[in-house]
Design a protein that fits this description.
The structure is a homodimer. Chain A is built from 15 helices and 17 strands. Chain A is of the alpha/beta class. In chain A, helix 10 (256-264) packs antiparallel against helix 15. The model of chain A has no long low-confidence stretch (mean pLDDT 97). Chains A and B meet through helix 3, helix 4, helix 12, helix 13 and helix 14 of A and helix 3, helix 4, helix 12, helix 13 and helix 14 of B.
């Protein structure tokens, strides 16, 4: 994997770049639609390519490990082939879902023991095993096993957790460099910075992970309930330490405003379920603000969902029709809202890249942030 | 509306034809995907046009009346505009859903009083009112209010019900000819033959409805639990009476085999929720038989869903992937299975038209029926 910084903003720490992978290039800053169990929910792969122009999607190791399972994925020749997706894929380590979804979990130095939320079966994720699983999945970018601290979390607990995360990182990286990809493309391994909301722990972690000769670095454990100002402070302090020549991935973040503010702090990559999950619930992010499609005010608004959008769904269907579908619990409502929100997120990243190149990112961002927070 | 019979099969009563409507022509025999509440579930309108080449879709008056309601549909300029669908639409009268879905229903000579399954609100459907509602919806073909008898149903009950249906037909037709379309296209009104499984009642009903100067005629009250042989006998006896120069619509039917057998008996139009509903549950109809995608045997079958299909979903995705999506309850599974089944149904109708024209429909049908019943 190769990362090239193309333009660095003079007024902020924003930059544009290109990540080259075995499945093609990614222009950064980039938003990665979440394809949980091998599918970006309610969106066809053809739509991801032809309508959304998604450059990379994310898969969740926890979900893929449980279903369809590593046997099937291995026989298929990896996730790319299984889901027929020839562009880059990033997988998380599964750690986050173990904490948030599993019926039972127990952390030891060895790893994370958990019960499947599907059938209660017991499984152990170790730093080595999640590398093996991600070798089988075959994502272009794979993640270290970490512990994601909850918010709030006291300093002692955060330090203890961070030590475990760093211990696991060492084992995971060691296993990564002593194993090989199973398919005909390269894989990159990203360490993850943790440390909760504590500047000293985050600095310690950023220094620690920067010591690894990795292709990129992630920041985890944010957007878990802390105020956004604290998140931005932490991101700022971490990106000041992480190597400038490597991509920085802020995991699980966030709202459109979160994305723009974090780009200004030097983040290159994002993923979040928000555009798809909130979309399914009828919440639309637009360039003019947030629309709750369940709101009565849309019931007789027969104008297109987003007349300025390039995505077919935004001009094919009206606000009133989408409201009807969402209110009626129709699957097509989830399909349209997911397409709209992803289209908007990807458009916003494209605009950010454009304004960084033009040198006017900070002015543009200020105007956008004001609009994006509006409730329509 | 104009109907032209193009080819009449010499060995069966099958025929091909063209129905001309204000929203374009329909080649018959035709299958109409069911677009319940203004959406063919899990399928984009763009896919209906570009991938499935659907000629006409069906809407349910009961559902559309309750949500989004006639006010919204009227303001939108009718259902075509509301859902952005420029091809023909047929709406049922709502009677069937009153019997099958409503929380409470009470039939009188006046009409059908019922409680909404959504919010319990009380409504009255009269033969006149369902014409008014269908004027507001604006479908190209609209249906008379009828009573659909359950199976089994004794002769006395069936006769009593039939008399009510005929009484309602008179009132509905009278109201239809004394009202005008609300939008800039013509509407046609189809009477419905009832009479349960009794040949004498069906003959009486077929004669009665044939007396109306309608553009086409429907057969209702079948595929409600009676053995298929009885259904075919009834269809046969009714199509012998209905005017040969008008299209015949067999409501709510059925399996691919039901369609082919009924085409041989002179049916021109079909609708059924089976391809979409069964698809969402993981049942696929194919040219080689029926596949239950939940079956373990597909878990490592990485071949395309249907390599011979022209629909992108059938070649884009594998059987193993679709099985994974269905097992995991992923929306994309419902999307793919619905596309596949509708694509197959529409392909089957196209093949039927082709073989009728070629004069080899009966031989082709015999071979297909054997394969279609296979469990793969």
């Amino acid at each position: 994997m190769k990362f090239t910084v193309l333009h660095s903003d003079t007024n902020t720490k924003a930059r544009t770049g290109i990540i080259s992978t075995g499945h093609g290039s990614i222009e950064t800053p980039v938003f990665m639609p979440v394809g949980t169990a091998g599918t970006v929910k309610a969106v066809h792969q053809r739509e991801l390519i032809e309508d959304l122009h998604a450059q990379i999607i994310l898969g969740n190791t926890y979900h893929l490990y449980l279903r369809p399972g590593t046997d099937i994925l291995h026989q298929a020749g990896g996730l790319h082939k299984f889901i027929n997706w020839n562009r880059p894929i990033l997988t998380d380590s599964g750690g986050y879902q173990v904490y948030s979804l599993a019926a039972m979990r127990k952390l030891t130095r060895e790893g994370a023991l958990f019960s499947s939320h599907i059938d209660g079966s017991k499984h152990l994720f170790t730093p080595e095993k999640v590398v093996d699983i991600q070798r089988i999945i075959g994502a272009d970018i794979i993640m270290a096993l970490d512990e994601c601290t909850p918010y709030p979390c006291d300093h002692g607990q955060a330090l203890k957790s961070l030590n475990l995360t760093h211990d696991w990182l060492g084992r995971g990286f060691d296993h990564f460099i002593h194993t090989k990809p199973l398919y005909d493309h390269e894989q990159s391994f990203f360490p993850i910075v943790q440390g909760s909301v504590y500047q000293d722990l985050r600095a310690k972690s950023a220094l620690e992970v920067s010591g690894y000769p990795a292709d990129g670095f992630a920041i985890g454990g944010l957007s878990v309930g802390e105020p956004p100002e604290i998140m931005y402070e932490i991101v700022k302090s971490v990106t000041e330490i992480l190597p400038v020549e490597k991509p920085r991935y802020l995991m699980g973040v966030g709202t459109p405003v979160n994305l723009l503010e974090s780009i200004a702090l030097g983040i290159d990559m994002f993923d979040c379920v928000m555009p798809t999950r909130n979309g399914r619930n009828g919440m639309l992010f637009t360039r003019n603000g947030i629309m709750n499609m369940r709101n009565n005010k849309w019931k007789d608004d027969f104008s297109p969902i987003d007349p300025e959008s390039n995505c077919f769904a935004d001009t094919w269907y009206s606000k009133a029709y989408l409201r009807h579908l969402i209110i009626s619990g129709e699957i097509l409502g989830a399909q349209i809202a997911s397409l709209h929100n992803l289209s908007f997120y990807l458009w916003l990243m494209g605009e950010a890249r454009k304004f960084i190149k033009a040198g006017t990112f900070d002015i543009w961002k200020k105007g956008m942030v004001e609009k994006l927070n509006t409730r329509l």
